[in-house]
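Note to self: the last two entries modelled the partners one at a time, which told us nothing about the interface. This time every component goes in together.
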Amino acid sequence: MAMNWLSALARGAEIPVFAVVGAQGLVPVEGLRHRPGLRLVDSPRHARVLLVAGAVDGAHKTELERLHAQIPTPRGTVWWQAPPLFQRGEAVAGDDPLPAIRAAAEADDPDQRPDVPPHPWQGMGPHGQGGRGMMGGNPYGRPMAMTADDIRDGLALDAYTARFGPFLPMWPPGLVLDMTLQGDVIVSATVVSPPIEQGRRGDAPALCAARMLRLMGIGPVAARMRGALMALPKGSGMRRRLATWLRGEAVAETPAPLSEALPGLEWAEAVLWLASFPPSRLRAAFLTKETA
Amino acid sequence: MTGIAMPLILVLLAIAFAVAMQRIGARTDATWPQRAPFLGGGLPETHAWQRFHVRYYPMTLLFIAFEMEMMFMYPWAVVYVETGPVALAEMGMFLGILSVGILYGWREGVFRWQ
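The predicted structure of the combined assembly is written out below.
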């Protein structure tokens, strides 16, 4: 009896959803942000349901599977206006994914990725240290991080290289970058794949401004003051673009190539810089560079 | 009797609390994909063990230098009148040593407002 009462209460709670944005998926996902009954979360760790909104390229199948496996069990999957890339969950073609999300919140998908270490142990020694001495060896078959020349203030820090994207919630959806960071400073960036097509509606000023303000953690009331603009770094054009969007006008600037613009920026600055361009312009910048 | 029982009960409660926290905190059911950092589907190529610069380090140095000055100057002020110029010389040496740390902090740019 008590359990029924508890589960009835639990059913009334918001469902934490991690949204993967595919082609033309940005506008529908932004529409979900204020729907009662669900809450969009920023990491799969906090999610109950994986929502794939819009078609995702088959090249990103492994990344999507990894994301699915990173959601703690029990988990469910919903493919909203997207052809399923793997046989889990339910596909929805209509405008409202909420009933399917509710159903997925009761589901329990098995793991989509094998439960094995991504980089198997290849070293020697009882602790995987892979060699002798303080700095010797390659643990897990990979060398330890070493310091490299710092481009900010000369303090040498360890370089961290990783592939970021394509489904980072603070980034343009679909963008994949191979980046090297030292602390929070980006040292080098290489574009692996461009952002996904979002259509003309993805460039709507209100939508772009809302996304940028959300990344800054500033509410809509504060945005009417000059506080939002003052919080942005000077000289990067971010203030100008956000002000244009807040006036309700479209931004028609094209970003410089990322491999030149991103190095030297700090992580949070780079995230805001990327968000200060309309999705179609970002995508166009990559496509023209590839054909040229 | 209660003099022994109360600390014992407290110790037992503390142990029970520690064991309970250990049980709650230990998540051994995480799969390998869940143990990897969330990079939006990507996977890191380097180890997680990284050396990271502590940016507040020069500020800490400056704080310690001034705090040590104040800490020893209070008792010194109490005995200064009866001890006389010897105390003045000793404090001068002490401040001299500490000011080397402040000069170092100055060189590292700790007084620059950013």
